[in-house]
Design a protein that fits this description.
The complex is a heterodimer of chains A (123) and B (107).
Chain A: E1 3-6, E2 10-12, E3 18-25, E4 34-39, E5 46-51, E6 58-60, E7 68-73, E8 78-83, E9 92-98, E10 117-121
Chain B: E1 4-7, E2 10-13, E3 18-25, E4 33-38, E5 45-49, E6 53-54, E7 62-67, E8 70-76, E9 85-90, E10 97-98, E11 102-106
Parallel strand pairs in B: 2-11
Antiparallel strand pairs in B: 1-3, 3-8, 4-5, 4-9, 5-6, 7-8, 9-10, 9-11
Classes of the chains: A mainly beta (123), B mainly beta (107).
Amino acid sequence: QVQLVQSGAEVKKPGASVKVSCKASGYTFTSYYMHWVRQAPGQGLEWMGIINPGGGSTRYAQKFQGRVTMTRDTSTSTVYMELSSLRSEDTAVYYCGRSPNYCTDGVCWFAPWGQGTLVTVSS
Amino acid sequence: DIQMTQSPSTLSASVGDRVTVTCRASQSISSWLAWYQQKPGKAPNLLIYKASSLQTGVPSRFSGSGSGTEFTLTISGLQPDDFATYYCQQYNSYPITFGQGTRLEIK
């Protein structure tokens, strides 16, 4: 079955970077776009960006431009999200989510989602 | 950016009730709307896509309707497992945006 498994929780100091992974299985990795969404404690969902695992192209929300980098490793069917210059407001659970392969440019709904990775930014 | 506004923010209901959650978009998004259910400590789970299409495996008591700027999620015959937070999401254009969520609690 389709499964997305994310890396474990991280604790980082302000100014540091974090890299979260999302390993896909059960489908052809390069045929489906992958998105990243985050959720601060007690808050709603915030879309961060998308990567096309096939060609590696990316699109980021303007809020994160310059601080986020999404990459992929086709040999391990894994996508990565790296966020730099961390601040306390970046404390959140980060999710990856797959979108159907028939949606133009990947703008679509997400199913399934990874289990989430808690990133805590604290001095 | 397209703003998504859900109402109410919190909804109190009893098992067996029929409840409706509304989601309004700041501009027309045709039918490019999805609904998710999220339980504490878990990832969101897709319920409805394209405004009214039921995701495989989702119980038929969930239904969605609407187009343009106004959408609704209806749960007919609430079950104990349905008490959770619900989010709408537009995918008409980038950036993808979500409503702020509706928490469904037991009365």
